[in-house]
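Example record

One chain of 588 residues, shown exactly as stored in the release files.
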Amino acid sequence: MNAMNRRRVSLRTRLNILIAFIILAVSMVLMITGYRAYCRKVDEFCYARVKEAAVTVSRTDGSLAEDLWNAVNTDEFRRVRERAIAENDEEIIREWMKSKPLTDADGSELRDSTSYHPELPDDSLYGEYETLAWICEQARKLFNEDDIYIQYMENGVTYTLVDPEEKLFAIGSVEARLPEFAGYKDNERIPPTVFRSRYGWLCTACEPVKNLKTDKVTGMACVDLDMNAVIRERHWFLINCSLFVLIEMAAAITVSMLLMRHFVTRPMKLLAEAAREFGSISEVYTKDNVMQLPIRSNDEIGDLYREFLFMQNHIVENTEKLTAITAQKERIDTELRMAGEIQASMLPVFPAFPERKEFDLFARMDPAREIGGDFYDFFLVDDDHLCLVMADVSGKGMPAALFMIMCKIILAEQAKMGKSPARILEDANAELLANNGGHLFVTVWLGILEISTGVLCFSDAGHEKLLLRRNGRWGFLSKGVSGIPLGLFGDIPDASDLFPEQTLTLHCGDVLVQYTDGVTEASNENQRFGEAGLLSAVTGAPSAKPEQLLAYIRQQIDLFAGQEPQFDDITMMGLQYNGPQTSTPNIN
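Predicted structure tokens for this chain:
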């Protein structure tokens, strides 16, 4: 109880936690939804800006970019660029580009022509560069972008052609393609993409630049938009939303604590104290003194209080009934226990016939309930004849036990008249039919052993096969046919028709085991013990007296059944014959 009190959490605390969790969950959903909507709108605006700028620049004549690429993609230009970088002098690149006149498709110079690119400031390669740089710069101012440049992509490598931000030194610079753009082909359109670069967060888009005459892609117009400020705004949005959620939770918990204390926890506490007092007080309650509480609410708490009143009245009404039923059950249990003791006292006691050295006999019965329907019996008919009985009554409980007592008495009376086993069963069957108002029946194995010769004459009324050990080998007797149980049919003149009689001559050292179906029908979760299990058990048993043998069989049954409960009586009888040796019976 102390451990439970240490772990106890009040209902008010649980409800506060639940409300806080719900508010937090709803706020988080709303915050995430708003944050995603905000980010989506901002991203859409940025995407539209960079895409429009890239498309505008890409509409310029691609022949300018093509001429520039053809010129810079030479060893001569690379040497010039290396020297300019080494000397930190852009003028070296500019002079070299001015020295390169424009050429037609056949390679002829157009230095004196005014019809090829009349919009150029001059007809040199530098004039083309200046034109492209001017277009990029105007687009950057128009769309308020951070950087607009023209590149050429070949075999996964990016070459810069025009970048007004980095001037002439950027021409011909080589960069590896970024991982974010690795899935695109050379000079393929790249939609607006946000990624983290060495300059921070950027939004980049690229559009192909085409030669207006040949429709050939000659480069890529790329636009960069600085997204660092946007990302910071996103972070501030999250921080502000988180602070709002915390303030909202604190206010909601404070209000809910006050409301729950008045409407929920106080009435519940009164109910708990009343229930504890009702269950622990020594006073005997009646309908006139059931507990009344100051609860008048017309809600679930009120419904609970009314159910509490109903429960008190119901408990008071049933207390006397329960007391009477308990007393009656105790009386029945006592009677069943006494009946079981009486039944056990009617069975023979051990050691059996200790003065007789011709045989060793032992039997045991383990009922499934307080009283059982199985029984065994053995007695001397005369000084040279031993009667053995093993029986199993149908049904369970007191009716089967009473029927068992009647069967035991009738069989003993018939056997002591010196009748044969078949005759004993026939006459017993007739008496049982005349006094069987419960329509029960019983399977019986009855044998009479002539002690001096070892001749066993037995008859079987629907019972289990007899088990024999001879010369260390166990087997079931296969000779003969089983009869019908007692109490089912009668009025047949010849007893052999109902209860066939068999004869077996026992040798010195032979062991017989007879049993009821509770042995073979013992089961676990998957299968029954069966005759195969019984045969395996006795085969593995040490060469012991019948008492130890039956104890070993029962041990094997328990190991086989495991945790499965016993559902039928388990009764066994063992006989070891110590007389002279004779013929061999038919066993399998």
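Notes: The radius of gyration is 53 Å.
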